[in-house]
Amino acid sequence: MLSKPRQIDEYILLTLSGATAVALTPFAIYRIWTHEWNVAILDSAAVLLAAVLWTHVWRTGQTLWAGRILASLCLIVAIITLLLRGAEQILWVYPALTATFFLIPPRIAAVMATILLAVATIILWPELTQVKAAEFLVSSIATMMFSFAFADRMRDQHKRLELLANQDALTGAGNRHAMEKKLLDVMAFQRRNQDTPASLIILDLDRFKTINDTHGHGVGDAVLIELVKTISGRIRSTDTVFRFGGEEFVVIAENTSLPDASVLAEELCCAVRNNPYLREYHVTVSIGTAQFKPSESAFEWLGRADKAMYRAKESGRDGCFTG
Asked: Where is the GGDEF domain (predicted)?
């Protein structure tokens, strides 16, 4: 059974929300013990909300709104703490600034952090000497700049690594890892919305070994690239093509019934057959299709389409069967 791995955004949110809850709990207890009710309520509310966000991300993996809420929580708690306790709480500004850049896009975080810094300066100005105010501003701005640079670079590197991890280097199609993640997402959606069908199409190049042996692997690679271009040019923007094996490809067609998938499969066969470059090397494909059943696993769904594809090969190739 395929299991969906956690993404880096989930790990960041789980870490920061968990750290927030754990770090503030002793302070909330202490404030309650000393009857400092205003700060006690603030700390307790922050602990509760951080714990709720941690539970939400752990159970659902959804990070978009959780990140925005936690970033807002960090800034609001920092400002209210300064209003209630003044300059003695100035150190809380720095973790609030830093956390914001890892929870939301750096450019949005820079705007929010600037607002926090401006509000904090206004609150603290009567309590600080000019030297202390300058030290606070310089150190806060430096923290913002370092956090922005690091978070922005980290997100850029993450996008590049994610692209490399999910894209087939030769053809530009999604790779097997990306296909498995997509299958899990589609299957989860289908089980919640069983009135909306989804189908899977497996394509295998016929006699691809002959092309490699006769014309060389350079031509074989060019054929695979052109095949993906042909498939991508025919399927919808909501459909996705993946390289499943050496010369085997999978199209996941959401909101597509088996009859509609069969029509698409026939059109793909025809598009490959009539492509001028592919026709030069007598390229054809055998295709199997299968519609998802809520009771089956991803491997069973793939297996039915794969068996249908092999029936197409056994029936003379350049054809389509359903599973």
From this structure: 196-323
